[in-house]
Design goal:
alpha+beta, 4 helices
């Protein structure tokens, strides 16, 4: 099982303008998507007001299918809004309120 640090290190490799699903990150570090979700919640919780986390937690999304991923519906509305804004700032285009196209590879 990967540590939160190992998960965060993998997420830091996601370039601006790209997203990954919890499952994609989990596969890379040999852990569960739930563990990735926990690490992303932890990274968000440690974020300082007015400063972005060094771990781009907002670039990790929930898989819908092999074409679309979405902001997790389990996240509080405030977090969903912040994630959407940051993804747009990263150059990500939404195909609906909470869905984006992604590379399933």
């Amino acid at each position: 099982m990967a540590t939160y640090e190992e998960i965060r290190d993998e997420v830091k490799k996601i370039d601006r303008g790209e997203v990954r699903t919890y499952g994609q990150v989990a596969k890379k570090v040999k852990t569960s998507p739930q563990a990735v979700g926990g690490a992303m919640r932890d990274a968000y919780a440690k974020e300082q007001p007015g400063k972005k986390s060094s771990t781009p937690w907002w670039r990790v999304l929930k898989k819908v299918n092999d074409r679309y991923a979405r902001i997790s519906p389990k996240a509080p509305p405030k977090t969903q809004k912040k994630q959407r804004e940051r993804l747009i700032d990263d150059g990500i285009t939404f195909v609906s309120k909470d869905r984006v196209e992604y590379d399933a590879c």
